[in-house]
C-alpha cells in the first residue's frame, strides 16, 4: 500500500510506494551484529531459488580479487546457482569511491549497481556567520534551527580534561567520547575531522557540528548527501576547505579581540533539479578480477534516499546514502521487467536494464566516465521494451571461467554443481568475447591498439520485423567500425551478429576515453557504452595503494 506524507522532518515530502506495488517480497535474514555469514548468504539464495523468487536483491558488497575466489567463497557460487535457475542477482558496487579498482561483486553473471546523486535528491543548506558571510555547505539538515545565531567553538575548546589530540594541521579531531556535553551545550562545534559518520551522530549536547571537507574544493559538490540522518539531534554540515579556512579565521579574529564568533545553520531546501551523476562514495571500476569486463553495470539513485527504518532503531523513515540504497532501485526495475516478461532470462533482464539506461556525464574533477556509473542511470519504462538484448547462457560463463588456469573439472563442479563440462573440451571465452552489453578496452599507454569484439543480439521488439542501424559516437583518439552496419530482423527471438572494431591510442596519464554504440530502428535505441583506459602495469599494486587511502 502506498504511504502518503512520508518525509524526514519535511524534507523529501511525498508518497512512498514500491517499484512493483503488487509484487510479493520474500525476506531472508543473513546479517547479524558482526556482518554477514557466508553460510547464511548461501542458504538464503538457495532458499530463494526453492521459493520461486525471480529477483534477488542484496545490499552486500564482497570484494573478490581473484577468479579463484569465485569458488573459494560461497557468495559468488550461490549467485551462479541462482543464475542457473533463472534468478537475476542484483548487488551493490560498494561504497569505497572515488578511487579506481574498488568495485565489488564483479562476477559477470550478476548485476552490479553503482550509486548516483542528483535528479531530485539534492538539497541546499546554508551557514550564516556573524560577520554577514553566507556559505553553501554540504549535508542535508532537517532541523529547523532558523536563523538564530549561536556561538562557535573549536572542538579542542569543549573537550574533557586529558583529551587534547589535534591533527597534523594543529586542529581538532572530534571524537564523541572526548567532548564535554556541558562545554558544548548551545554551541556550533568546528571539527577539522571526525573519525566516522556514525560517531558524528553521537556528538551530544552541541547545537551543531561544522566539518572541514576532506575533498579538494573542485570535488566539494560531490559531498552532498553525507551526514544526513534524522537520528541526529543536531545538524552536521560540511564546508569546503576554502570556506572552512575563512570560518576558522573569522573565529580566531573574533575571539582574539575578546568577542564571540557566531553562526546559524539554515534548514535545507530542495536544490534545483540536476542531471544524475556518480556519487563520490560509489566504488569505481575497473574490475580487479577482469579489466576486460566493465563494472559496475548500471547506476541508480542512492543519495538522500528516504528509507523505512526499524521501529526499534529509529524513526519510521530516515535518509540514507550509499549503494545499499541504489541497489534496491535497480532490483525494482528488474522485477518490473519480469512482471511484463516472466519468461526472460537473467541475461535478458540485465541487458534490458543496461541498454536502455539514461546516459550520464562525469564530474569535472573525476573523468572516469562509465568506470563510475556503468551504462548509465536506470530507465524503468524504457527497459520494458528494449528492442534487442544481449543473451548469455550458463555454458558461456563456464567457458569464460575455463580461461583461468586454476579452473578445472573440480573447480567448475564446485561453482556450478554440474558434472557434464570439462574445460579441456570447451572453447575458451575471454572477458572481451563474452556477449556482454558493454565494451571495456584496457590499453598500453602511448601505443596504438586495435580491439575486435563479436556480439550477438536477440530480437525481442515489436514489431518483430525491424531494421536496426548502427550509430557510433567516439571522442578524438578513437575510431569505431561496425560490420554489418544494418541488422535486418524478421522474427521474434531471431539472433543476428555483428563485429565492432575499435582503434585508438590512450595517452599515458590521460583521461579515460568514453564512446558508445547505438542500434536503432527509429523506435528502439539499444545503447552500449565503450570505455578505453590506461592498462596498469600492476593491478595488485594499484589496488593495494587505493585501499590504503581513506574511502571518503
TrEMBL record:
GO terms for biological process: proteolysis. SUPFAM superfamilies: Subtilisin-like (SSF52743). Residues 267-276 have a biased composition (Basic and acidic residues). Residues 16-368 form the Peptidase S8/S53 domain. Residues 265-287 are annotated as: Disordered. The keyword Hydrolase applies. Keywords: Hydrolase, Protease, Serine protease, Signal. Residues 434-531 form the Subtilisin-like protease fibronectin type-III domain. The keyword Coiled coil does not apply. One of its GO terms (molecular function) is serine-type endopeptidase activity. Belongs to the peptidase S8 family. This is Uncharacterized protein. It comes from Kalanchoe fedtschenkoi.
